[in-house]
Amino acid sequence: MSCAMGTIRYILFFFNFLLALAGLAICITGVVAARTKGATFDNVVQEQLTTPAVVFAIVGACVFIFAFFGCCGALRESHCMIVTYAVLLLTLFLLQVAVAVLAYTFRSQTNSVVSNAITKAYDDYNLPDSKTKEWIDNMQQELQCCGSSDNTKPWGSSTPDSCFPNKDRSKTIYGQGCIPTLVNVVEAVLSLIGEVAIIVGVVQVVGIVFALCLANSIRRAEMRGYA
Prior knowledge:
Layout: H1 3-35, H2 38-41, H3 46-76, H4 79-123, H5 132-143, H6 178-226
Helix pairs in contact: 1-3, 1-6, 3-4, 3-6, 4-6
Family: Belongs to the tetraspanin (TM4SF) family.
Protein name: Tetraspanin
Main location: membrane
């Protein structure tokens, strides 16, 4: 094994070790994003937030598995394994580009989706046997917001206890409406997904280049051995 080939081999191994850690980070980010809903997000932004998050978690798991595969290929100096790894990494890179586009597309739609859903929910707040009241109260406490677009809509003079910290009416009412608050939360999560996908994608391109260089070095060494 030449010095250059050995250097590339160990660089690729170290790179894949870091990529495996990145894969775990991606997976955890996706899982956390997918679970960031509960009573606050159900039936409001489920598609906007959950779909990219679940795909992101799956991508993270694949990154981890592929990185482990790349480590094995580098240690064994297997031309076939390394080329396969490069192809898998390229496929995953293209998928991550799609995830980033999906996240930013959903982000651009967040304001209208949240506004429509929240406005309708507040319209149903006082309906008999409505489950909407419970999750609106939970949302207002959790996000520390009140009303739809601001803290006077749609309450008028009948502001609920959930508009106050710990439902204590002696305290100052939450000043921010729930629509802008919820939009900010969802946009922040989707932006995080898109940014991480892009950063890891750039790292993967570097991995593909190193993998192909090592595969080429191994092939040349094999050809010299047969000569």
